[in-house]
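Why do we bother with holo predictions? Because pocket geometry can differ from the apo form. Keep that in mind while you read this record for zinc ion.
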Amino acid sequence: MKRKLLFSSLLIAVTSASALAQQEGDTAMLRKIRDEGLNHSKVMETAFYLTDVAGPRLAGSPGLKRAQDWAVNQLKTWGLVNAAREPWGKFGKGWEVQKNYAAITVPYYHAIIAIPKAWTPGTNGEVSGDVVLLKIDTVADFDQYKGKLAGKIVMFESTMKLPEGTRPDLTRYTDEELDKMENATRPPAGGARNAVNRRMSAFMRLRALRNATYEFLEQEHVALVLSQARGTDGTVFTTNGASYADTAKSVPPELETSGEDYQRIQRLVKAGIPVKMEADIKTQFFTGDLQGYDVVAEIPGTDKKLKDQLVIIGGHLDSWHAATGATDNAAGSAVMMETMRILKAINFKPKRTLRICLWSSEEQGLFGSRFYVLNHFGDPKTMELKPGQAKVSAYYNLDNGTGKIRGIYLQGDSAARPIFKQWLAGFKDLGAGTVTISNTGGTDHLSFDAVGIPGFQFIQDPMDYGTRTHHSNQDTYDRLSE
Ligand SMILES: [Zn+2]
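The structure, written out:
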């Protein structure tokens, strides 16, 4: 079952091509696209360069720059024009892990699975010390620890249970689930707002306590903070531990620790058995260039009247730092690059210009696409639009992991349903046919939708995205389904 990424490129190549050449020649073109994609695919080679070769691609990191430079060069090699890293505005500091070691040394030796939180400092050489379990529910709890934490390795009492694995990691959509999506009616807008507001205020209270706690720990000169990561079986879902802003306050070094290791240490300390640890973490900040960049490249349109118009495809190239961001989102980036490669390889001459954009800083708030849209098409806050806005027919995004494409989300745009039904008709044999009125959020098509450019994201089989790979230390090339 190694067909998913490869097939996705075919579908998007056809989707992009269909937008331009609806009438005669569609069948022949479809046959050429299928042949190039199925028999001469380069998608896994592209994925290899974006993951294993480039490494982790956190926003602003050297790894992301390596991947961007490679992508620009590769797109040029395939014959695309105007290929470049395009600055979109100020992002903030780059950051990477250069050394990461931590182990229990008492009551016995055991190296733990743990990842530095993004944008946290290192330990400034090797540190060792007693592990102290903190119980902090309010700022009043700081008092009992004052003056006692210097050089200690601290952790917070965690009630996070490791769930028993009663369900398979890896799933695909069943026919029934796809039918349900197809038959969905539009969800009422703003229905759950009160619940969201309640959750938000609880979250803000927690965040205020968290900020105060970290400030306290920094003042007390703790050697290292351990926190329990979400995830089981050695999987660590990573997050950031400090802001990427160049003005961010300093925080203590912090390791997001696998559930099994965290719970073992906690059980020992709670039982009154002393635990000592040693650690050596080195992280590096990069402040030389605070700009964020997107990769862009084009296949120019050939129709005199239509070549100024655009069809844009893309996905975000940045990732988290604990692995090589294979499913999030080297997969989507590789598929979109392969889409362009296929169209060049079969010498497709589009009427409109086709543009590929590989975004950055998606993981911090869709910044790469939002600022690109702001720079080229308009401001969603004022709805002041630039002339370029009217020239974009549609934007297609791919960012839901390695699962094969099963259809497309209409984002409430019912007028697009017959168009997509027609395009997908040629892919029934490959399992894609569902067109749902539903929205899917959380990624870069929203930036286009926000200024009135139809932005779409495809339905993909979930695979082990939610359970295993999304933002985790397991998001490696091995998780990709060709
Ligand atoms: Zn993503």
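The first helix runs from residue 4 to 18.
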